[in-house]
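Chain X:
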Amino acid sequence: MNKSLKRVRATLEAAGITPDIRETAMARTAQDAATALGCAVDQIAKSIVLRGKDSGKALLFVTAGAQQVDLARASALAGEALGKAEAALIRAQTGFAIGGVAPVGHITPPRAWFDRSLLKFPLVWAAAGTPHHVFSLDPQKMAKLSDAQVSDFVAIS
C-alpha cells in the first residue's frame, strides 16, 4: 500500500473512523472523481494548496468540486497574499503529490479552511493520498479532522 494512502488511513482510524477508501481508475480532477463515484461534482472535496507570499508556507483550502477559490477572499482569511504553491512545497509540507492531496494525514498540518457549501451534503469524497484513491466522510467530521475553519472563500458567480 502506498505510504501516503497508509497515512490517510491511519489518520482516519486514529480518529475512530472506519474509512471507506475506494480505488478509482483516475481521480486527478473533481470531475474524474465524481464520474467514477457516480456523485455530484460538488460532493468532491478538493484540496487546493496555496502558498503564503509572506510566510512561504502551504495553506489548505478544501472546496466543493465545481467551485474555484477566490484569491482575494482566501488571502483575507489567511492574512497574507496567496499564490500558486509549487509541487515541491506541497510534497515537502503535506507529503502528498498534486492530484492526491488529502484534507487529512499531512506530514506538517497546514492552516486550513473548509468550504461552507460542502456542509449541505450528508457525505463528501476527498483524495486519500493518491490520484487513484478517495475516501468518504461526513463533511462536518472532515472539517474537524482537517482542523479547518468553515469559511466562505469561493468565487461568487
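Chain Y:
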Amino acid sequence: MRHNASKTLALIAMLLPLAASAHTGADGGVHHGFATGFLHPLTGADHLAAMVAVGLWSALAARRAWPDLLWAPLAFAGMLLVGALMGLAGVQLPAVEPMIAASLLVLGLLVATRIHLPAVVAVAGVGVFAVFHGVAHGHELAGEQGAALTLAGMVGATVLLHAAGIAMGWALRHANAWLPRVAGAAVLGLGATLLAQAI
C-alpha cells in the first residue's frame, strides 16, 4: 500500500510540470460542452494541483472521517461555481492569476504540515481561493455557446479531483511522514513558479 502511494505521488510530481499552462487562453478559447469542460481542469497544472491538494489536505488533517473530509472540498466546488458564474457575468476581480498562485502556496503548506483548521476557517479560506479559480474559468467561457454544459463538466471534474485527493490523503495518513511533505512541497513549488510568472 505504501509503495503504491509513493509511486502515485511520484507520477503526479513528474506530470504536474508538463501540464503547466496559464489560465486565459490556455485551451485556445475552445469550449464545447460537457466533455471539454470536464477535461479543462485536467489540462492546467494550477487547477489540477489545487483541486487535488484540497482533497489531500482534507484527508490528511481530518480528525474524523465525517464531516471533516468534506467541508473544504464542498466549499471549493461550490465557490468555484460561484466564481465561474461571476466570470461569465463579466465581473472583474483584481490579481486573479497571483491569487491562484497564492492558493497553491497556501494549499501546499497545508498539505505539507497537515494543519487542522476549524471548519469555518477551512471553508472560508478555500472558498476565497476557489472564487478566483472560478472567475478565471468564467472569463474563458464568456460569450461561448453551451457555457452551462461546459461549466457543469468543470464542476464534475473538480468534484472527482477532490475525491482523488481525499483517497490519496486517506491512504497517506499512516504512511511515512515525508510523503505528504513531498506532495505539499510539489504544490508549493508550482505555486511559487506561477506567482513569479504572474507578478
